[in-house]
Structure prediction request, 638 residues.
Amino acid sequence: MDVRVSGVRKEFDRFPALHDVSLEINSGELIALLGPSGSGKTTLLRLIAGLESPTEGKVFFGDEDASLKSVQERNVGFVFQHYALFRHMTVIDNVGFGLKVRPNSSRPSSEEIRRRSSELLDFVQLSGLEKRYPAQLSGGQRQRVALARAMAIEPRILLLDEPFGALDAKVRKELRRWLREIHDKTKHTTVFVTHDQDEALELADRVVVMSQGRIEQIGTPDEVYDKPNSPFVYSFIGESSKIDVRVENGELWLADRRLGLKSDLPDGDASLYFRPHDVALVSDSDACIMGTVVASRRVGATRRVELEIGGASERIEIGISADHPAKEMSGIAFRPQHWRVFPKS
Amino acid sequence: MALDLPQTESSAKVWHPATTESRAARYALIAITLAFLGLFLFMPLVSVFVEAFRKGPAEYFAALLEPDARAAIRLTLLVAATAVPLNLIFGVVAAWTIAKFEFKGKAFLTTLIDLPFSVSPVISGLVYVLLFSSHSVLGPWLKSHGIEVLFAVPGIVLATMFVTFPFVARELIPLMQHQGTTDEEAALSLGANGWQTFWHVTLPNIKWGLLYGVLLCNARAMGEFGAVSVVSGHIRGLTNTMPLHVEILYNEYNFVAAFAVASLLALLALVTLVLKTLLELKYGAELRAASGH
Ligand SMILES: Nc1ncnc2c1ncn2[C@@H]1O[C@H](COP(=O)(O)OP(=O)(O)OP(=O)(O)O)[C@@H](O)[C@H]1O
Ligand SMILES: [Mg+2]
Prediction:
């Protein structure tokens, strides 16, 4: 099922939680909504589900306007952040709930409900736990029950709010891989919310980066990592270093030093962003960035050095090869290999 | 880098919990509490039964089986059987509205629900007299339609409902607020309609709190004196509930009969207490969210 969010704005008591958000989700895609706390991820997910109604804008499921439909009619599988399992129902009754509450005309028989629920529990590798109550399950098991329950209604789209948020690191990793497998098998159109960039980059076909109620960038994991299109995305995804520079006649300057980097921004103050590990050391006679080493530490296979950039009292980090001596107070000259300049905000 | 936490002064000394008292003080406090409970609760309770059985079991049962007493018992049961279910429904609806929706004037509504607790029951009764007496607007109109409210069963039920309506709502509001709305949202997203959601999800989540509230509501409904006294008219065999009957017997110096009927009320209190304790023991965790008590 294609899903299209078109020009959606959402206000809570005049406080805008989403401003003019548009997003197209292709059938069968696995999409991650990634952003810091309060950026509106949950709000967007709930709007798609119909748990919240937009102040402005529309949501389309395929060609039909879903904005006119209630949450029940939309037939979405929603997995809540803390699972929201029904605590007084056994695991199998939880999974079968969506089928049990169907109107008589479309409700399967109770044996059929039982059979389908067990199948789903099998699918999420929980067979044998049918008779347990949610309180008797581990966090990871609850997560899987919640997913099975959402899938039982044969939803048109699966929506997961921080599916791994409440789990420890090891279980997270396992479930992450497992969710990808499930998705590859079932081909459900899936949207999940996360504030963990590794999770988003590893799992999703496309990542939607959000900040302060707006979509900053939509793209494949490679695109958002390699070609961030805003200072926010640069600093939110992966590591980045930032230097305040000046544009003059299409060239970047740091104080009175030419950096040997070009830009088509108009003259004026700007910020240069690059990945710390994506730099090349150069001889200091070239146009380049010069820095003085103030600290250095070994991180895995590389060496991280903290530099004081001449002129500016700012410090930045770069990653260089581990065999570089990088003695304190010694000078280092480098140039970023991939970089972007944004007008100073 | 090593963490150099400042050494606080107290870490050098032996640590004392803030509430530690000397042993003597502790025993003294316990003794005072027990003496108080004994003097003001236990002794009166025992004396009710002692007094009731002073002339032997035969007199005791005779006092309970006598027609006016039977009528009073029947009326009390009838009033409780009407007021409690109605308040149960009202309480659930009110708690649902307050806990699960956002609207203007919510805080005011919450305060309003507590009103019967802060108003003297006598005043509650007087309000009904004002509303339904023959000088009021409503009274004569109802009377012309053959409905007697004042000095009749409907008035007693109304007054009892007014006095007891906060019990269920107060028990449920914090409980429901604590539980939030995600369970309901989950049910709705799975396709359940409003009624199915309430029946299969909300009600099971609140059932122990609800039972607790109903228990307290019932105890008060059966024992209410002040408000009922004002609206009842004290017609023997007709509009006397058990507490009113006790008072009448007592005023007639019929102590054995008065205490016999009173002993039933005392028994009700004891049963309520036991059930309440059982509920708290078994479902304490669920009820604790509703920490209104
Ligand atoms: N029901 C509500 N009433 C008022 N404000 C709300 C409501 N729900 C969300 N908001 C506000 O909208 C903004 C976006 O919230 P949202 O829950 O979508 O953020 P989020 O990206 O999911 O954050 P988190 O990662 O912390 O879950 C926040 O500023 C929040 O305070
Ligand atoms: Mg959220």
Q: What stands out?
A: Chain A has two domains: 3-235, 239-343. Chain A has a mean pLDDT of 91. The longest helix of chain A spans residues 169-186.
